[in-house]
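Work Package 3 (structural annotation) set out to generate three-dimensional models for the target panel prioritized at the project kickoff. During this period the team completed the workflow that converts sequence records into discrete structure tokens, so that structures can be stored uniformly alongside our sequence database. As a representative example, we reproduce one entry of 226 residues exactly as it appears in the project archive.
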Amino acid sequence: MGRTVVVTGSTRGSRIAWNASRFLLRLFGVRARFFHPGSWEEGADMDGLLVLGGIDIDPATYGGTEHPSIAKSDPARDAMELALLARADAEGLPVMGICRGMQLLNLFYGGTLHPHIHDLELNHPHPHTPLPLRFVTVEPRTRLHAIVGAPKLRVNALHHQAVDALGEGLRKAASDANGITQAIEGVDSRFVLGLQWHPEFMPYAWHSRKLFAAFAEAAKAVRKVA
């Protein structure tokens, strides 16, 4: 039987990201199953977890403060994804978080968030675009660098929040010109990777395919315990 990656998102508004992610996962040999707050199954077959982007995480989920930039949140989605992250952690499964997914991954391990990037002192513009119009610098000697094999990547940007303090067992894997963290990863051998950009919206990019290929290989390598 093939391997299955659980992909999470919102009840509404995640379909484009889900379909693009499903295409990339199937391209590299794993099945994908989409869960939203009204459909998820806690004990479903899962060899890897992909947490998609979307609406902001509810500040009440992590003890944060309300911010006028947070127009909409979904505590039920937060709870679902945190429960699945806990299961993935307990079972040693590979995890990839995209945009909001990276932020939730950081919170899960005890990190914090900047509620609104534009409240920070920025020395360079912070664009909001699905097109690869900005550069991120990849940290050397990281899993991310080993996957993409390049010191810089051209990526998109659809976020207004960002990682602040890193969670326990995580390290920075990429940053932008303002020094804002753009990728995080686990420090041990398990595949745990968070990306602030959206590789699923750039399936034409060589580095997007390398990222999904590496994640798919990690899911296929999971050893089941009888």
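The chain has a mean pLDDT of 91.
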